[in-house]
Write a structure and sequence with these properties.
Length: 134
């Protein structure tokens, strides 16, 4: 499965901490877009899609949430609950985000400009495309 949960280095002293994401250091792609998910209603599931071209890095910069990752064969559940843990997801991974805590802010970095046509929002279509790419 093409994902990686990793701890990232942070800088700091007794005044606070800082984390940077930089291509070639702790990010494998050119960052073209960033967005964050917040005010998520408890018990709601977000995501529920795969992307043909986008790779992502997800960081719970506040609070926590869970990510269900599916590559068409295997499923894994990852919990993000600290700003110094990051989840890398390759393209063509199906993902569901859920169990957001009340204060959760999920920061997302990606290598693409937003393009709805690269989203696969139907799971059966996703399985079909994954199998045809094998
Ligand atoms: P969506 O991908 O469904 O969010 P999530 O993955 O959190 O479930 O996107 C929600 C809405 O926001 C949808 O109308 C598309 C829009 N959107 C943008 O315009 N630009 C973006 O970069 C993203 C990620 C979403």
């Amino acid at each position: 499965m093409k994902y990686k949960l990793f701890e990232t280095k942070f800088y700091g002293d007794n005044t606070g901490h800082l984390i940077s994401f930089e291509k070639g250091v702790n990010c494998p792609f050119d960052i073209k877009r960033t967005f964050y998910i917040f005010d998520t209603i408890p018990n709601k599931v977000r995501g529920q899609h795969a992307n043909r071209n986008s790779e992502f890095i997800l960081i719970a910069i506040s609070g926590s949430c869970k990510i269900r990752i599916d590559d068409g064969t295997t499923q894994e559940i990852v919990e993000l609950n600290t700003p110094h843990k990051a989840l890398y997801l390759d393209k063509m991974i199906w993902k569901d985000m859920y169990d957001f805590s009340y204060n959760a802010i999920l920061l997302v970095l990606t290598n693409t400009i937003y393009d709805e046509s690269e989203y696969i929002r139907d799971y059966q279509e996703y399985l079909k495309e994954i199998k045809s790419g094998d």
